[in-house]
Design goal:
There is one protein chain. By secondary structure, the protein is mainly alpha-helical. It has seven helices and two strands, in the order ααααααββα.
Length: 178
């Protein structure tokens, strides 16, 4: 709950009108990076753990298959991290339209994670700059927070999919002892 509350608070600050937006505080990018890093590890571990056959699992006819969900996360990450970097990002459904196998989807997810690592490695001053995302002006920090929030939202879907298949999601597993 604490991680979700922090993500919600970061989104609230990032969505304030430009004139009332506070300067990005020291450590803000590191906080966003920590939230994203945690959830991206859970999503990636889940993508690796789910069987090839379960990539076509769809809980109800109205929702994405597990594989489409992984593709959506990978494509959306690339789009939002591109905005955070001030680079062109393509369409968020590019991967969903072109990749279908577990191997291709896990590779696309890992590639989007690597791309996002560059975005989350920026300084607080860099992410205070402006970018376009979904046709609107936002700070680059907003794009980073939105990405982490979006990944958390869909990790919640992944947890449900995995539980329905009798699996324990990564976030519910015992921590390895050091």
């Amino acid at each position: 709950m604490h991680r979700i509350s922090l993500a919600a608070a970061l989104v609230a600050v990032a969505s304030l009108p430009l004139a009332s937006r506070p300067r990005v505080a020291s450590g803000s990018v590191s906080d966003a990076r920590a939230i994203w890093s945690n959830v991206s590890e859970y999503v990636t571990q889940s993508a690796e753990d789910v069987s090839d056959a379960d990539y076509s699992f769809r809980p109800t006819p109205e929702v994405r298959t597990f594989g489409q969900l992984i593709a959506h996360i990978a494509g959306s990450q690339h789009l939002m991290c591109a905005a955070a970097l001030g680079e062109p990002g393509g369409s968020e459904d590019d991967i969903e339209k072109t990749k279908t196998t577990k191997a291709d989807l896990v590779a696309a997810l890992k590639a989007s994670n690597e791309y996002c690592k560059r975005a989350y490695a920026q300084t607080d001053d860099q992410v205070a700059g402006m970018t376009k995302l979904f046709g609107q002006d936002h700070t680059r920090f907003y794009a980073l927070v939105l990405n982490a929030t979006h990944d958390n939202e869909h990790y919640g879907n992944i947890v449900t999919y995995m539980r329905m298949r009798g699996m324990v999601p990564p976030s519910s597993r015992p921590s390895p002892k050091s």
